[in-house]
Write a structure and sequence with these properties.
The chain is α/β, with parallel strands linked by helices. The chain folds into 2 domains: 15-256, 3-Layer(aba) Sandwich (Aspartate Aminotransferase, domain 2); 258-359, Aspartate Aminotransferase, domain 1, CATH 3.90.1150. Helices cover 34% and strands 16% of the residues. It has helices at 15-24, 43-60, 74-86, 100-111, 226-231, 241-256, 259-279, 308-317, 342-359, and strands at residues 4-5, 66-71, 92-97, 115-121, 145-147, 150-151, 156-157, 169-172, 189-193, 204-209, 284-285, 297-302, 320-321, 332-335. The strands form 4 sheets. A 7-stranded mixed β-sheet has the order 2-10-9-8-5-3-4. Strands 11-12-14 form a 3-stranded antiparallel β-sheet, with helices on one face. Strands 1-13 form a two-stranded parallel ribbon. Strand 6 (150-151) and strand 7 (156-157) form a beta hairpin. Helix 3 (74-86) crosses helix 4 (100-111). The longest helix is centred in the C-terminal third of the chain and has 21 residues, at 259-279. It starts with a strand and ends with a helix.
Length: 360
């Protein structure tokens, strides 16, 4: 039986995509093999990867002066790869720290011998807020400004695109990419792990402006060096073939269901319904500032934390899985990415109301 999977990632995939992959798994394109068995150098898979890039460019409206790279190592590899490609040792780089993942990006830059300036750190709010534009200013001479538009663990999301004064803006968009329209031209580089809205774990998509590549440090590993990977069409080494194939299917599904504008409307409506249920209750609460609430990751607490494990267990029995909050935050967390239907959110809301009646 299919359940409603509220995992933060790897997350649920659209059923139509899974069924399509299932139907093609043992005999892809009449080859008598699955897509995971064919050569990444063969014309069929090369065409598959090319089509995935074409679809991504179309769905996201990626400008022509940006490279699209399909890399391995997940978003975490980019915590080191970004400074390796965009800066030299001793350079100044600016960061906005709003939670765990932006904190890891800060640590990655420090490993690369940079002068890291955390120009806003939300630790005083226990990372339940985002800084207002008036509360920070990029450090002079910064090679780039890095931020995480959505913090998966804390459920915190920026309500604006930071100003950089002309320096490249770098964003870890793992939790929000493909969830709504995105102005790619506002960024020098965006990167995202695939396991939330794009496909299975193992693939990281990097979209980088042409003028920012070709300047990597000599010691940069070849599989993390953007210019070389771009020149090889992301096939300098064996790419994550199954993840690229599934990305293409997900992008087809997004296009067929109305594109990112329609996806954004659906995601906003799902989030509004869930936050509405939380806010109308004295039993549940959301710790995040109203202007910083995530559309995709919704943490919530109960007035009596001793009920947390019971809630999670009973929800799982009802077909609502992976609702436990991150160990660093506690409580519960519902991740409601693209593939989570409105019916799944409503089922959670109904369960929450029933649990409150029985335990409030």
């Amino acid at each position: 039986m299919r359940v409603y999977n509220f995992s933060a990632g790897p997350a649920m995939l659209p059923l139509a995509v899974l069924e399509r992959a299932q139907s093609e798994l043992t005999d892809w394109k009449g080859s008598g093999m699955s897509v995971v068995e064919v050569s990444h150098r063969g014309k069929d898979f090369v065409s598959c990867a090319e089509q995935a890039e074409v679809l991504l460019r179309e769905v996201l409206a990626v400008p022509d002066n940006y490279k699209v790279l399909f890399l391995q190592g997940g978003a975490s590899a980019q915590f080191d790869a970004v400074p390796m490609n965009l800066s030299a040792p001793g350079d100044v780089v600016s960061f906005l720290r709003t939670g765990s993942w932006s904190g890891k990006a800060v640590a990655g830059a420090r490993r690369q011998g940079l002068q890291v300036e955390v120009i806003a750190d939300q630790k005083d709010s226990n990372y339940t807020t985002v800084p207002a534009p008036s509360e920070y200013e990029i450090a002079p001479g910064s090679s780039y400004l890095h931020y995480t538009p959505n913090e998966t663990i804390g459920g915190v999301e920026f309500d604006h695109i930071p100003e950089t004064g002309g320096a490249p803006l770098v964003a870890d968009t793992s939790s929000t990419i493909l969830s709504r329209p995105l102005d790619v031209s506002a960024y020098g580089l965006i990167y995202a792990g695939a396991q939330k809205n794009m496909g299975p774990a193992g693939l990281c998509v990097v979209i980088v402006r042409d003028d920012l590549i070709g300047k990597a440090r000599p010691a940069t590993p070849s599989v993390l060096e953007y210019a070389g990977m771009a020149a090889a069409d992301s096939m300098l080494n064996t790419p994550p073939t199954f993840a690229i194939y599934l990305l293409g299917l997900v992008l087809e599904w997004i296009a067929e269901t109305g594109g990112l504008a329609a996806m954004g409307e659906r995601n906003q409506a799902k989030a509004a319904a869930l936050y509405g249920a939380i806010d109308s209750s004295d039993f549940y609460s959301n710790p995040v500032a109203t202007n910083a609430r995530s559309w995709t990751n919704v943490p919530f607490l109960m007035a009596d934390p001793s009920l947390d494990k019971t809630f999670v267990a009973e929800a799982a029995q009802a077909g609502l899985t992976n609702l436990g909050g991150h160990r660093s935050v506690g409580g519960m967390r519902a991740s409601i990415y693209n593939a989570m239907p409105a019916q799944g959110v409503q089922a959670l809301i109904d369960f929450m109301a029933d649990f409150e009646r029985r335990n409030g």
